[in-house]
Amino acid sequence: MATSSKTHPTGELAIQTIAMPADTNANGDIFGGWLVSQMDLAAGVIAKQRAGGRVTTVAIESMVFHQPVGVGDIVCCYADLIRVGRTSMTIDIEVWTIAALTHSRQQVTGGRFIYVAIDEQGKPRAITE
C-alpha cells in the first residue's frame, strides 16, 4: 500500500462528511467507490463554481489509495483547480481523514479529475473568465 508523507492538505476544503457503517466493504473499511463518489462531488463543486453552470465529469486521470478509512472518521475533500482550458478543467482532489478515535489527520487518497462545462443540451461550452 502506498503511503503519503504530506502533513497538510493542498487546495480548499470543498466538502466534508462522516464515514458511516452503510459505506463499508466486506473487510469493514469504507468502500473505495464511496470515497471516489465523495471526490467527484468535491471536484464537481469547484468545477461548477468556476464554469458558472453545468459541468460533467469526463475522466479520472489517476487515483492512489494510501490508507483505509474507518467508520466514524471525518472525511475531508480538498480541491485544487490546476488547469482551465477552453471547455475543460483539471482538478486535483486530496482526501484527508480525522480519525474517530485518535483525532489524528492523514491523507488517505488523492486523484485528478477532468470536467467539461456543458450547455442545456449537454454539449461542451466555453468557460468564461
Topology of this structure?
Layout: E1 12-18, H1 32-51, E2 55-65, E3 74-84, E4 88-98, E5 105-117
Antiparallel strand pairs: 1-3, 2-5, 3-4, 4-5
Summarize this entry quickly.
This protein has 1 helix and 5 strands, in the order E-H-E-E-E-E. The chain has one helix at 32-51; strands at 12-18, 55-65, 74-84, 88-98, 105-117.
Textual characterization of the structure:
The chain has 129 residues and is an alpha+beta fold. The protein has a single domain, classed as Roll (Thiol Ester Dehydrase, Chain A), CATH 3.10.129.10. It is 16% helix and 41% strand. It has one helix and five strands; from the N terminus they run βαββββ. The protein has a five-stranded antiparallel sheet. The mean pLDDT is 94.
Q: How many strands appear in the DSSP assignment?
A: 5
| Poorly predicted residue ranges | none
What structural class is derived from the secondary structure elements?
alpha+beta
Q: What count of domains describes the coordinates?
A: 1
Strand content: 35-45%
Task: Give helix % range.
Answer: 10-25%
Overall CATH class: Alpha Beta
**Averaging pLDDT over every residue, what do you get?**
94
Descriptive key words:
single chain, 129 residues, alpha+beta, Thiol Ester Dehydrase, Chain A, 5-stranded antiparallel beta sheet, 1 helix, 16% helix, elongated
